Amino acid sequence: MSNAKPRPKTKAGKDADPARSGVRRGLVEQEIYDHATRLFAERGFAGTSFQDIADAVGLTRPALYHYVSSKDELLAKLVAEITQDSAAGIQAIAERDDLDATRKVHEIVVMSVRRQAESAARFQLLIRSEADLPEGIAETHTAGRRAVLKAMAGVIEDGVAKGVFRPVDPRVAALGLLGMNNWVAWWYHPDQRNDLDRICEQLADMAVASLINPDGSATTRAEPRDVLRLIRRDLDHLENLLD
Fold this sequence. Notes:
By secondary structure, this protein is mostly helical. It contains ten helices and no strands. The chain starts with 17 loop residues before the first helix and ends with a helix.
């Protein structure tokens, strides 16, 4: 006869093993988060009610409160995951000593494009819901976006100063590249035509090509005369192509 003690049961007769209970809770919370993200993306934050989320998951409203306190809690998690994680990832690349400015821009674009493609619904909902974000969450979102822009502009500014990049306004150039990356969330769909690795590499190469300075002459800032010289050279190149 076995001396093993029977596993304790809950009132409902279910296994009360804390480990299994914790795993189940984690799965349910992830399901709630995924459904909330989809609904926020489709309807906007303001247009999604707590009851909508409960219905999508298949829970009653009281049961949903057992896992999350409000839809603000779900949105706060999303904003932190998207904006703060993005900022941290870009900052980590920007601070690497083993990469020059060219390689840093390449790596940042690859990382950003991949995140946009793999989490498209989450990025879409943030864009659609920016005007409706609660004050505290909006501040977190804004701080994350500013950190991303600052890190990207810093890399470009360093490249300009060292003559690796043409004399551009680092902030404007950073906004342009980040805008290109952000648009991926709207047009990318995983299929045979859209190989994500190839897309990441192509957009990263395009980003670097838009900044690279073929002259290799260092400048501390974007002087108007230098900008005009680059514009004339590009126009000459375009005329040659037309001829």
